Amino acid sequence: MNNSEKSERHALIICDLQQDAIGTLSHEDRTALFTALIPLLDMARMLKWLVVFSGIQFQSGYESVNPDHKLFGALARLNSKMGDGAVHWFMAGWPGSKICVDVEESDRVVWRRQHVPHELAEIIKVEGVTHAVVAGSSCAVQLATQLLIDENVKVSVARECVGDADALRLEALLCHLLPTYSNVVTVAEIISDSCGSMSQFLERAGHESRDALVKLVTGVQNESAPSTDESIVLHCSDCRRRGHGSRFIQVSLF
To answer: Which of 149, 162, 165, 253 could form an SS bridge with 198, CB 3.0 to 4.6 Å?
Structure first.
């Protein structure tokens, strides 16, 4: 069977969504990131996509970490002096290493103990994934997209679902680096393309996803924030009479 005959298998891959990885994000940026992930996760589970959470997690004492490792060696050296109680970033059993959103029984969690997520590439091959949407912590998203294209996976990155504490670095990543390896698109575009249209998704989506999409469209994350001329939600109603009204409404919904 050649590649053109392979059945399509979609996956949503969320990278390093752990407190120790995104703890430097501002409250506003964290709120925006989690808000954007709500409908994306809802859509993936609705369409029976494979949902994979990829993260980094070390064992007690940073077992097997070379003290001279450029990135993680400092943690191993400091831990050898102060112990797990004081130095436990990304360590199993400590809150900072846990996934920050609810993981369902059907989801897959893939842990690594090194910078590059080779384990993620392995599960993608085993599951026969052909298309992937990637979200999460910026550096991990970059690594995942680079790995996935070498596995002949078509990759998209959800623009609103990439977190970085440095706004300029994030903009450079989204505008210049990630497009080299993937299609960088909005959550609304991903949902519309995957579900046929935004209206079809909204017919099946829960209230939480609907609310999150309104916040994404209006740019209002704070429930008490006043509306401005740039953040107005418009409503439409289809009377189902003959004509082009239904088509106009479908086009208008993203």
So the answer is: 253
